[in-house]
Amino acid sequence: MINKKSIGIFDSGYGGLTVFGSIADQLPDYNYIYFGDNARAPYGDHSYETIYQYTLECVEWLFAQGCPLVILACNTASAKALRTIQQKVLPFKYPGYRVLGVIRPTAEVIGSYTVSDTIGVMGTRGTVNSESYLLEIHHLYPEIKVIQQSCPMWVPLIENNEHVNEGADYFVRKYIDNLLEQSPDIDAILLACTHYPLLIPKIAAYLPEGIQLVAQGEIVAGSLKKYLANHPEIESQLGKEGKMQFYTSGDDQDFNKHASIFFPKEVVSTHVDLKV
Length: 276
Ligand code: DGL
What we know:
By secondary structure, the protein is an alpha/beta fold. It folds into 2 domains: about 5-100 and about 220-270, Rossmann fold (3-Layer(aba) Sandwich); about 105-215, 3-Layer(aba) Sandwich (Rossmann fold). Helices cover about 45% and strands about 15% of the residues. It is built from 13 helices and 10 strands. It has helices at about 15-25, 50-65, 75-80, 80-95, 105-110, 125-130, 130-140, 155-160, 165-180, 200-205, 215-230, 230-235, 250-260, and strands at about 5-10, 30-35, 70, 100, 120-125, 145-150, 190, 210-215, 245-250, 270. The strands form 2 sheets. The protein has a 6-stranded parallel β-sheet with strand order 4-3-1-2-9-10, sandwiched between helices. It has a 4-stranded parallel β-sheet with strand order 6-5-7-8, with helices on both faces. Helix 1 crosses helix 11 and helix 5 crosses helix 7 (about 130-140). It is globular, with a radius of gyration of 18 Å. The structure holds D-glutamic acid (DGL). D-glutamic acid binds near residues 15, 42 and 76.
């Protein structure tokens, strides 16, 4: 059998490229297909039903491209769509296909980042309101207190390339203050959104000493590496030519331009019409 299949990487838009960057660093040999649903992004404020519907359509598109494994490199989609896809769709419609998210692997290691057993979680409204991090972390670490803060202005600032400018400082401070006001014991902050690593220089400059920032890319990449080692039935289907393909439901030229903020290599994408 010729193994030519790719790992699918899905995000609502560009943000998943931060996670994909870490995956490609740690697992450079595999073939990848990245799909960004830019035409319908951002997902952060959409309802559960809408996010589930959109995510499922994109996952099915990646399956149709020959991806036996799809990573939801999007916190909002992982929070609102993953469980239903894993439990209600895959076993009946796509046995043998796998979909993994970013919340579980992050929750699994979060205990090693806190001494005070108090973690701050910053994400979109969708991620925060889903309480997925609260549930996953409490399940694995009942002793850890999780304090959440939604940051609805951060994604638009980054997508408009304003995150490096002075205007962004106001919203960085506002959400950090709102989070830290909820507890003096927070000693680690999880950036639970694909976009937020781009704000690290500003967040780190404002953060009081002794509080650690946790980005997800490397955590998710490390977890995928272990998953592939433990699942030869999936791993053996994958091509290893180091190919990367990029697709977007939005404008391809726009995608290529914006992608450079999120991804270290040149991105040449193709537009896909999902016909919804
Ligand atoms: N990718 C999303 C996440 O990680 C952020 C962008 C959006 O709201 O669509 O939550």
